[in-house]
Amino acid sequence: MLQQFNEKNRDLIVNINGRLVHRDEAGISPFDSVVQAGDAVWEGLRLYNGRIFKLYEHLDRLHRSAVLLSFPEIPPREKIIEEIKRTLAANRMCDGVHIRLSLTRGVKITSGMDPRLNQSGPTLIVLAEHKAPVYAKTGLTLITSKIRRPPPEILDTRIHHANLLNSILAKIEANSAEADDALMLDTRGFVAETNATNVFIVRNAEVATSRVVACPEGITRATVTEICAAQRIPCVETDLTLADVYRADEIFCTGTMGELAGVIKVDDRQIGDGKVGLMTRRLSELYAQRTAAEGIQVGQ
Fold first, then answer.
1. How many beta carbons lie within 10 A of that of residue 123, not counting itself?
2. What are the pLDDT digits (tens) for 226-236?
3. Domains of the chain
4. What is the model's pTM?
């Protein structure tokens, strides 16, 4: 699976600290913290018919992450929403859009790691692209990465940070194995997530997902657990082993970029009957109903 260039994105207007510029003219200072050390937090948002699904939940997580990184200044929710609206209006976007929202610690007075060098406030970047969910509906293949997800005492997963080298190393392994993505374990050997998504398994019509130890508190993940509760589908958070994965009737991944995506093979082992399962399809349909009916209005 490799994303392709969308011609509709050729003349995108990008928002950098309130300045709307053509994508080819957009630039970040070499003194910005995101360039110096990956010192930034981010969220992925999706626009459905003029509404952003779970917008407030995403902005709350962005704020929590910035607080955990001790950002001295954090733009208020209203300011961020206004910049999102301006960006969407400039691009005449209303549907089928993914938004990458980044907040960096800002520009430093000189290069260096010390946050005290940041004295001009944060940098807010709004990048909206025409982008459909990125995963194939026919099912994904995964390999288990040798790269482990760190425990909270090393790096707390509640910080939704922009330093993604851990994930990139795992994705390189997946690419080398010609798999779609990499399944990542924690340092105890339990399933954490993939390099890009949360993971669920289905066995005997019951759904299970990893505990939030070495994986982030995914918002799509939380929505799936809400749907399961509303539909009286048994769903638990627990420690999952590779044995649980291999023996699963179904596996699916969740994330804003790709919504729900079924998994049909892990480490060359077929999952279930090798097709996207009934539970995955059912939950995908229920999720689509939610995104079609809910969200915060931000566009036409």
1. 20
2. 999 999 999 99
3. 7-130 (3.30.470.10), 140-293 (3.20.10.10)
4. 0.96
